[in-house]
Write a structure and sequence with these properties.
Oligomer: single chain
Structural class: alpha+beta
Number of strands: 9
CATH topology of the largest domain: Neurolysin, domain 3
CATH architecture of the largest domain: Orthogonal Bundle
CATH class of the largest domain: Mainly Alpha
Distance between the termini: 64 Å
Strand order of the largest sheet: 3-4-5-9-6
Largest sheet: 5 strands, mixed
Number of helices: 26
Number of domains: 4
Shape: globular
Length: about 700
């Protein structure tokens, strides 16, 4: 052990404030977490023996205990997702069981549970926010097995330990399988149709992989399964055989060899089913929904079926339109379009129909300009001012940015890190918002103090290449807006009880509301024109591009909707009706559901589930439907702005403040339906979602 890893000066033991990312190393994890856990166990023992059943005597010290340990372990989890390494994995694997044992002990504490019950008898002395936190705490204790005894409790706890390990393994194997695969192209015929941005990126990837002389003009070019490489290749490569090769590699990721996740899937599903039944639920979906807005599985089925009926015929027509277009172009594959043809011919049809392709827009969306437009929008709608604070805090990678969020008076109210670029060697794919620090009010030295919220915004967009900045696709712009929406809810909360501040204590199927809401502004003319300025000339995004983007917004939306419904239903079916070890495999379940949610059946070898980290390694198990559930809320929320007139800046600013004061401010202090009604004045309606998707007539 090095000197810096001693328990005396371990940076993971600071326990508060911003993490010193410039100091934290994998070798700090085991000694640091060992000591942090020992201290947490001591504090828990003391609390169990000495609490009084009041908010200040029980819930406040409990939250302080949880926050201190979470501070250390959350840093480890964050680095696992953005700076993964064999050394960090080993340390995480060593400490994860010990961390879980602590949380199991806390959640199953009979002494604390008795205290919660005693506190619940004095509900009238608590604020509404405190009552809601207490209700959640009681529920979570019950769902964590506080009522179990003997062998049943031992089995339940063993399941929790194994599930945590399996989730981490699943995620690591997806990362490793993605990282291990690449196509090295050297023949100019292999790159026919590929845009200059991808060639430059692929040459840089080749240099990074040991081809020092690779250039965009002469190659070799390295194509990977990382989205900024995979997607443009599938959209533009004229080499159908190579598209097929890459597509088959993508759908069989983590499904063979040393990174095979197939056995993990059935094990995870079986353990979840067993856990749910121990707690008295028929299946894991019922357990999951007991913590969400949706009342039951039938209600989710009903929403998904209504969206399927509105989108299926549109998707059939879209596929036929692609076939007809390919015929007109003389494509030999026109009457036998396969999965690896869909992105390619969709992009060609988009070019023909709307006279632009996704690559044309890149020069108008350099990251700096997109951020400026996004921050200007946040200022106009929500009254906040966002400024760069780079260099003021340690970061985990040189590309990571840091920003301050200030209110109307110039007072800082939040901060966030932005880790924008793809780094397939060490960073998980996808995009997400995580919290570094949560808003909370606490007492120190007899004075009330406020801890400001700090967010992590993580994307995997196209990195800068050679002398060019990060030039974003429009989809990457939408993704940044999406994650920023999550960040706004974390950062603009006004709740001082940390257990309900920001996104905490919000039902999972409501948590996508602000993120999906923000995506709508990418189609708002003043916003889009402020985002789009050519990175070399400063020329504004031409008006005709705005009109084309608007016209293309619902292009292939039936197909896109069906894809999300397939994912949501497969997730629900696997957790509600599938029997592990029964007559069907999970892949056969997917194939069966695809018969009514896909117009092009999956290939027999499709093993998409092996990389479906959302449900097997993330928080979306029996909850992937949340994207559609919350999209109903977010579309209806945006309709409030449409109703006052999107060109009326004063009116949308007023509605924006109301959105800030309700959806963004109230966090988990009230039920999400009450928060939505406070903003909208009524319950949500699906009309706006169908209209935005171009599917209203079909419905």
């Amino acid at each position: 052990m090095t000197a810096t890893a001693t328990q005396v000066d371990n940076p993971l033991l600071i326990g508060t404030g911003l993490p010193p990312f410039d100091q934290i190393q994998p070798e700090h994890v085991v000694p640091g977490m060992t000591q942090a856990l020992a201290e947490a166990h001591d504090r828990l023992t003391h609390l169990e023996e000495s609490f009084t059943p009041t908010w200040e005597g029980l819930m406040v010290p409990l939250q302080q205990l949880q926050e201190r340990l979470s501070w250390s372990w959350n840093i480890v989890g964050h680095l696992m997702s953005v700076k993964n390494s064999p050394e960090l994995r080993q340390a995480h694997e060593t400490m994860q069981p010990e961390v879980i044992k602590f949380w199991v002990r806390l959640n199953q504490s009979q002494a604390l549970y008795t205290g919660y019950q005693q506190l619940a008898e004095q509900r009238d002395r608590l604020t509404e926010t405190q009552q809601r936190i207490l209700d959640t705490t009681l529920r979570d204790a019950e769902l964590s097995g506080v009522g179990l005894t003997g062998e049943t409790r031992e089995r339940f706890n063993a399941i929790q330990m194994e599930l945590a390990d399996l989730g981490t393994r699943f995620s690591n194997q997806v990362l490793d399988a993605t990282k291990a695969y690449s196509l090295i192209l050297s023949d100019p015929a292999d790159i026919a149709g590929l845009p200059p941005s991808l060639l430059a990126q692929a040459a840089q990837a080749a240099r990074d992989a040991g081809h020092p002389d690779a250039t965009a003009a002469n190659g070799p070019w390295r194509i990977t399964l990382d989205m900024p490489s995979f997607m443009p290749f599938m959209q533009h490569s004229q080499r159908r055989d190579l598209r097929e090769t890459l597509y088959r590699a993508m759908i069989t990721r983590a499904a063979t060899g040393e990174w095979d996740n197939q056995s993990l899937i059935d094990r995870i599903l079986g353990l979840r089913q067993e856990m749910a039944q121990i707690l008295g639920f028929k299946n894991y979906a019922e357990l999951s929904l007991s913590q969400k807005m949706a009342p039951n599985v039938a209600a989710v089925d009903e929403l998904l079926e209504s969206l399927r009926q509105a989108s299926y015929d549109a998707a059939v027509a879209e596929l036929e339109a692609l076939r007809q277009f390919a015929r007109e172009q003389g494509a030999p594959e026109a009457d036998d379009l396969q999965h690896w043809d869909i992105s390619f011919w969709s992009e060609r049809l988009r070019e023909a129909k709307f006279a632009f392709n996704s690559e044309e827009l890149r020069p108008y969306f350099p990251l700096e300009q997109v951020l400026k437009g996004l921050f200007d929008l946040a200022h106009h709608l929500f009254g906040v001012t966002i400024t760069a604070a780079d260099g003021q805090v340690p970061v985990w990678h040189p590309d990571v940015r840091y920003f301050q969020v200030a209110d109307e008076t110039g007072q800082p109210i939040a901060y966030f890190y932005l880790d924008a670029y793809s780094r397939p060697a060490e960073k998980q794919g996808g995009a997400w918002m995580g919290y570094c620090l949560n808003r909370s009010r606490y007492w120190e030295g007899g004075a009330a103090k406020l801890q400001l919220p700090v967010a992590y915004l993580v994307c995997n967009q196209t990195p800068p290449v050679d002398d060019k900045p990060s030039l974003m696709t429009f989809r990457e712009v939408e993704t940044l807006f999406h994650e920023f929406g999550h960040g706004l809810q974390h950062m603009l909360t006004t709740v001082d009880e940390t257990g309900a501040a920001g996104i905490r204590n919000i039902e999972w199927d409501a948590v996508e509301l602000p993120s999906q809401f923000m995506e709508n502004w990418c189609y708002h003319r003043p916003t889009l024109l402020s985002l789009g300025k050519h990175y070399q000339t400063g020329e504004p995004l031409p008006e005709h591009y705005y009109q084309k983007l608007l016209a293309a917004r619902t292009f292939m939306s039936g197909t896109a909707t069906l894809r999300q419904l397939l994912y949501a239903w497969v997730d629900l079916e696997l957790h509600a009706r599938y029997q592990p070890g029964g007559p069907e495999t999970p892949h056969q379940v997917r194939d069966r559901i695809a018969q009514r949610t896909s117009v092009l059946p999956p290939l027999p070898e499709d093993r998409f589930l092996c990389s479906f980290g959302h449900i097997f390694a993330g928080g979306y198990a029996a909850g992937y439907y949340s994207y559609k559930w919350a999209e109903v809320l977010s579309a209806d929320a945006f309709a409030a702005f449409e109703e006052v007139g999107l060109e009326d800046e004063q009116a949308i600013a007023q509605v924006g403040r109301r959105f800030r004061d309700t959806v963004l401010a109230l966090g988990g202090s009230k039920p999400p339906m009450a928060v939505f009604q406070a903003f909208r004045g009524r319950e949500p309606d699906t009309t706006a979602l169908l209209r935005h998707s171009g599917l209203l007539a079909a419905a």
